[in-house]
Amino acid sequence: MKKIKVLGPGCKKCQTAYNNAMEAVRQVDVEADVIKIDDIEEMIKYNVLATPVLIIDEEEKVAGRVPQVKEIKELLIAQ
Amino acid sequence: MFEWTQNFADWIVYSVLKIEAETAVGSALNFFIYDTIKILILLFLIVFIMGIVNAYFPVDRLRDFLTNKKLYGLEYFFAALFGAITPFCSCSSVPLFIGFVRGGIPLGVTFAFLITSPLVNEIALAMFLGMFGVKATLIYAGSGILLGTVGGFVLGKMNLGHLLTEWVRNILENAQKVSEEFEQKKLSFFQRLPSITREAWQIVNGVLVYILIGIGIGAFMYGYVPENFFETYLGGGDWWTVPAAVVLAVPMYANAAAIVPVIEVFVIKGVPLGTAIAFMMATIGLSLPEATLLKKVMTWRLIAIFFGVVTVFIIFSGYIFNILL
Predict the structure, then answer these.
(1) Which of B89, B173, B293 should one mutate to test binding to chain A, selecting the residue with the greatest count of A CBs within 10 A?
(2) Is B185 part of a structural domain of the chain?
């Protein structure tokens, strides 16, 4: 079971990142939990600078831009 | 470079649609078509170039540069410059603020970044280039960076640390210097090109509707508002118009994409360029939504000081523009 976290305070970019993560999980046959973290205090714990941030199993994969569905799929399969 | 767009707009409006050039509809529509095509091309190009720059200088690396290098006072300038070249949506401002201050970057330097970042952005740059030409664009970008440098320096000298919210002060007290290396995948330029292109396309796509609205309003005013309307009714170049325009614009928020086409028409109809630029800077650089976001890290008093200092500098730069342009 993978844990995917999308960090972002809730702007449009962060919402898109979250939707892309959900879509990626739906498309690949990997069991994963997708959590959206919009609390700033929680976000700070991850040393975030620019949002949105994509974290898979506590490892920062993408920061400061919206990851594409295809990209997230590759990250999920690669692990 | 863009003569062909004008020819195309002329051809569509006067030959295909057979609307007379002298009518308000004709000139508004012509303006709309010409501006839209030109702006979209420039916007894509600039966003694309910025994308390349950012692939090589991610914000983490810029922060490490500011933290680790001895810059002898130039750190304000660099922070402002980095603010100008990094695109980030306003909702990143709080994490960025904390990340900078926690990394050991002084408050004033962080402010320099925070001031310039929304003030000079790639969308406004592209639209300026398309509408006012190279000279005005350079003055706009240069003064935005200068404003951040000086503003950050002044705010830094005011010792405002105690006006941060308690939450941030706690974080700072417990902070150990974080400078973990951000693992960037090493990709060659050509491997990166597709994703940079795609992102540039997404950004242009994302602001397209605002640009169309902005150019639409601009085109309407262009066609229907009489020449020198603003000069006659809004005081034109009187000394008080600059502060009035800025103070009016601070609480407002509009996307750069929507505001630039409108100020272009202001200028065509007789508002001095400096006043118009100051108005735009106040609109995109300072806003109520931004103040609300910053509330998490700053007390109201600090937000007021921050906004006040930046407002004063924008007014100054408005006067300077009016003299230079």
Answers:
(1) B89
(2) no
Q: Which helix (H) or strand (E) holds B30?
A: helix B24-56
**pLDDT score recorded for residue B201:** 86
Q: Which among A6, A14, A32, A55 is annotated as catalytic?
A: A14
Contacts of B72 (CB under 8 A, 6+ apart): none
Q: Looking at this predicted complex, what is its ipTM?
A: 0.78
Going from the N-terminus, what domains does chain A have, and what CATH number goes with each?
10-67 (3.40.30.10)
Would you state the pLDDT for residue B186?
57
Collapsed DSSP state (helix, strand, coil) of residue A6: strand
Say which residues have a Cβ less than 8 Å from residue B210's Cβ, sequence separation at least 6. Answer: B255, B257, B258
Whether the model pTM is above 0.90: no
Cβ contact, residue pair B58, A64, below 8 Å: yes
Residues (pLDDT < 50) of chain B are 179, 181-183
CB B113 within 8 A of CB B80: yes
Q: Decide if B236 contacts B273 (C-beta within 8 A).
A: no
Burial of B73 (C-beta count, 10 Å sphere; 0-12/13-18/19+): exposed
DSSP string, A26-64: HHTT--EEEEEE--HHHHHTTT--SS-EEEETTEEEEES
Percent of chain A whose pLDDT exceeds 70: 99
Closest C-alpha among B175, B94, B292, B160 to residue A50: B94
Choose the catalytic residue: A3, A10, A11, A35.
Answer: A11
Distance CA B118, CA B283 (A): 10
3-state helix, strand, coil in chain B (%, to 5): 75, 0, 25
Domain that holds residue B211: 3-173+191-324
Q: A53 pairs with which residues across the strands?
A: A7, A63
pLDDT of residue B307: 93
Angstrom distance (rounded) from CA B186 to CA B190? 12
Number of domains in chain B: 1
Structure tokens at B273: 């360029």
Whether B134 is in a domain gets the answer yes
